[in-house]
Amino acid sequence: MELDAQSILGDDGRIAQRLERYESRPQQLEMASAVEQAIREESHLVVEAGTGVGKSFAYLVPAILHATSDQGEKKDDKQPRKRIVISTHTISLQEQLFHRDLPFLNSVLPVEFSSVLVKGRSNYISLRRMFGAIERSDSLYARPEEVRQLEDIVEWSKSTKDGSRSDLDFRPMPSVWEEVQSEHGNCLGKHCDFYEDCYYFQARRRIWNADILVVNHALFFSDLALRRDGAAILPDYDIAILDEAHTIEGVAGDHLGISASSGQVEYLLNRLYNDRTNKGLLVAHNLTDCQKAVIRLREYYADFFAAMRNWRQSKCPTNGRVRSPVEIPNELTPALRKLGLRLAQESEEIEAEEKRIELKSASERCSMLAMSVDSWISQTEDDSVFWIEATSGRRESTRLVSCPVEVGPVLRDELFNVKKTVVLASATLAIGEENFDFFKSRLGLTSAIEKKLGSPFDYQRQVKLIVRDRMPDPTAKPADFETALCAAIQQHVLETAGRAFVLFTSYRTLKNCSARLGSWFSEQNIALYCQGDGLPRSQMLEKFRKEPSAVLFGADSFWQGVDVPGDALQNVIITKLPFSVPDQPLLEARVESIRARGGNPFMEYQVPEAIIKLKQGFGRLIRSSQDTGQVVILDPRVRTKPYGRLFLSSLPECRVITDTELLSEM
């Protein structure tokens, strides 16, 4: 029997032979066939597959069959491995692939393959650095809890399975993990006494010998950025499969730009020498002159970031965007470079290599931070947007950020024109019925096979879509809209006795509605959880799932990547169409770029971007064939504006109820 996706996923396939009551899904088979075609023809593939299609098996099976297609043949030692990288945005999907889907397929498929979960280097412990930190703990740490955590890590290191931070049963303080983590510039490689037992190098050996590499988008695009400079995190690969592909533009931009913050500088200086506690790396090495240099650097650091905040306040618009090189006194960059050079010189005087490399690594950090600050100030990156982020409070923070205005040209040159096949998959990529132009243009993808596959779920039966076209316009009458919004939330929350997500586009509106409705929720005995109240997202979701009647107010991160199947969630209330804040520096620059080339930024960028996010919010409701409920859109523009039709046509077909019909039912 020929091995292909049909023979594995079809009604008479190997999975059906293993699982009782297995039913193949036409959409899954069609997607798997498209992935096979893309690999065979060395083409790229863009595929939107609705919730319930089983995307992961649809790309994993063809990927595994391709990676193992030459098994049984006589191999040439010089023949490269058919290595495939699979990247996801969320940790939950990454863990599902590695811990559930791949082991199952390994037990079903009649081929042998290996897979590995790839983590960034800083996730692993360095045994050499750990024992060095124990020796220097008196000079490194001022707080007893830091020493206690270090001792706990030593005990954990004796029994850990993979030596990664996720295997720890507590979250270590940054100041502790920083001293024990594996680092590129702080590694002796084969010259280290712990090389054979090194968890990081054990992981690297598994990576180089694996057929399937599971990574996250952050690591994938960090690797892509390094490849531009001749370095790499991942071994070479020909095929990349990027799930949750609707997040790619944002993640790629984050890793192809510059970021330097006051917190990074302060953390580095504290690690080197904290004059209040007389602790730090320089104390351990008794480098008193360098300690004095750090004290001077603190003054330059304080002056520089104070001047940067003043510049933002006096010379920048409210969004902090910087349109020309910043002209302020900058003694910070030369002082960082000078300290970096001095540390490098001091390191050469130390005979013991394991101690010398700690100073050398600190030297490189000083130099890299100096380079980032200097590059941002002089704005050496072409076609980028620059801005200053400043937060107040107990501790002020200032962050200098830049990002490419368009990531498409970089991705086209560094990814799509280099790799034989890139598969881009998500439940939300198309605009309207079947239009991938927006998604492709944003990523610089000019040629690809395109597939839009529906969901096996029966949305006509499972979902009721309520659109409130008689609400005040949120742009023309924001105060009236917020008042009507609170009343509408009350009405629709009662329809399902809680069990609702209320999705907001701004934290300010979320807080205002929470303040107005808090007592009402108490009277109704409905638990209310609000994002930003201090409870971590995972704990908030766990409490929401367990409560018999609960409502969750969420903003940006709750529109996607949140999974609550079953009766706990029967109602998703969308307060406004999720247009991005128009004065955000990156969006502002992209709008200007589109307008400069004669385009219509609202219809070409802002509307399509908002449609994809609305589809994500809609998708929170139905996660299985048994789920039922309602989605409520309280923004009247979805019915009153011409572009609203595009929003509605992009959603799965379901029963739509308008305000007029609601009134007739009363």
The CATH topology of the largest domain: Rossmann fold
As a percent range, the share of strand residues is: 5-15%
Structural class: alpha/beta
Biggest beta sheet attributes: 7 strands, parallel
- What best-fitting shape do the alpha-carbon axes yield? globular
Going by CATH, the homologous superfamily of the largest domain would be P-loop containing nucleotide triphosphate hydrolases
Into which percent range does the helicity of residues fall?
A: 40-55%
CATH-level-2 architecture of the largest domain:
3-Layer(aba) Sandwich
What's the multimeric state? Answer: single chain
- Supply the CATH class of the largest domain: Alpha Beta
- In angstroms, what is the radius of gyration? 27 Å
- Separation of the first and last Cα atoms: 61 Å
Strands of the widest sheet, in order across it, are 3-4-2-5-10-1-11
**Number of E-type strands:** 18
**Uncertain spans:** none
Topology:
Elements: H1 5-9, H2 14-18, H3 26-41, E1 45-49, H4 55-67, E2 84-88, H5 91-108, E3 115-117, H6 127-135, H7 137-140, H8 144-157, H9 174-180, H10 199-208, E4 212-216, H11 217-227, E5 239-242, H12 248-255, E6 258-261, H13 262-272, H14 281-284, H15 288-315, E7 321-322, H16 332-348, H17 353-378, E8 384-391, E9 397-404, H18 408-416, E10 421-426, H19 437-443, E11 449-453, H20 459-462, E12 463-467, H21 478-495, E13 500-503, H22 507-523, E14 527-530, H23 537-546, E15 550-554, E16 571-574, H24 585-596, H25 601-618, E17 629-633, H26 637-640, H27 644-650, E18 655-658, H28 659-665
Parallel strand pairs: 1-10, 1-11, 2-4, 2-5, 3-4, 5-10, 12-17, 12-18, 13-15, 13-16, 14-15, 16-17
Antiparallel strand pairs: 6-9, 7-8, 8-9
